[in-house]
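Just scan my protein:

——
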Amino acid sequence: MIVLNGGSSSGKSGIARCLQDVLPGAWLTFGVDSLDAAMPAALREGDGGLDIRPDGSVGVGPEYRRLSDAWALGVAAMVRAGAHVVLDEVFLDGAGGQKRWLHALDGLDALWVGVRCDPDTAAGREAARGDRVPGMARAQAESVHLGVGYDMEVDSAAREPMACALLIAERYAQHVRGARGREA
């Protein structure tokens, strides 16, 4: 499993799609956008769900968190069943988000990748997309990385998605070889 964490409009989804092209075998991609699309409308905007504020900051209510945690356990079950997964995530509370995923992935091996993108570039991408609340990318550019431990980081403002994916694929191959060595 490969976990990509970065702010909104940082380039994670493009990198995830490129990883599907360069990694050996079949890889599924899931992410926070998949989860959000699966949520009932009432939890995408409302009590107990996501609270997307006019400044672009995001709060997470208890019902959304409960379903998000259940979803993480479901993704982990797919990995336990043999699926290869690239996760495209936004740790809104930094280290707390990673801690929840570490709990869900207990006993599984994952490569943790920070996808960095400077706030100005992310804000420009956000404006071009037109499907985000202005300010979200800038607000998340650094906060999602606070206290998070990574195996590697990529700068999606300095490299195209495929170049980032190739770096991650190379590191993943090293990671797998290292894990096999630890098992021997």
The mean pLDDT is 92. The chain is about 50% helix and 15% strand. The helical segments are 12-22, 32-38, 41-44, 62-80, 95-104, 119-129, 136-143, 161-183.
